[in-house]
Specification:
Number of strands: 0
Order of helices and strands: HHHHHH
Helix content: over 70%
Shape: globular
Largest sheet: none
Number of helices: 6
Number of domains: 1
Strand content: under 5%
Structural class: mainly alpha
């Protein structure tokens, strides 16, 4: 099946235009984080923590690892893509002000801020997943919780971790 070149170029233009919106970028990063989260959750729940006999107990450990790995994934991609313009501006500002912090120190500080800013969303996701898992499959419960928690994560990180300097 061939696609009309003008339709294809319009679709690509639309995608490029949408990428200019920070929340859309955040959503795309969040979608990748959801895939990472779900994959790690499944692998931990079904294989890594198999030695924990009770599935409900195993879910506590599996979910904690999945959230930690997804948070690191999301921080990395949000820093490199979603808020890259603010990172560059902050680096230029720091250089003009004679700031001697290393890139590693700056990265560590932002990771700490990101984790703190995201704590509410992480806690909300964790509690909602466990609560919803009483009535739904744990994977579906986790997706619902991720969607609800994403809004608080965006607002906190946009206004604090990656704020305009």
């Amino acid at each position: 099946m061939t696609t009309n070149p003008s339709l294809q170029s319009r679709i690509f233009s639309l995608i490029e235009w949408l990428k200019g919106f920070r929340y859309i970028k955040f959503g795309l990063v969040g979608a990748s984080g959801t895939v990472v989260n779900m994959a790690v959750l499944f692998v931990c729940q079904e294989y890594v923590f198999q030695f924990i006999e009770a599935p409900r107990s195993r879910l506590y450990a599996s979910l904690a690892v999945a959230i930690a790995v997804a948070t690191l994934n999301n921080f990395t991609w949000n820093r490199l893509w979603t808020w890259s313009d603010r990172i560059l501006a902050a680096q230029v500002h720091a250089a003009t002000q004679g700031n001697t912090r290393s890139r590693l120190q700056t990265w560590m500080m932002q990771l700490s801020q990101y984790a703190l800013a995201s704590w509410f969303g992480i806690a909300l996701q964790y509690v909602l997943t466990l609560w919803l898992a009483h009535a739904l499959h744990y994977m579906l419960a986790n997706v619902i919780a991720i969607v609800i928690a994403s809004v608080s994560n965006f607002l906190a990180n946009d206004r604090w971790t990656f704020r305009k300097r």
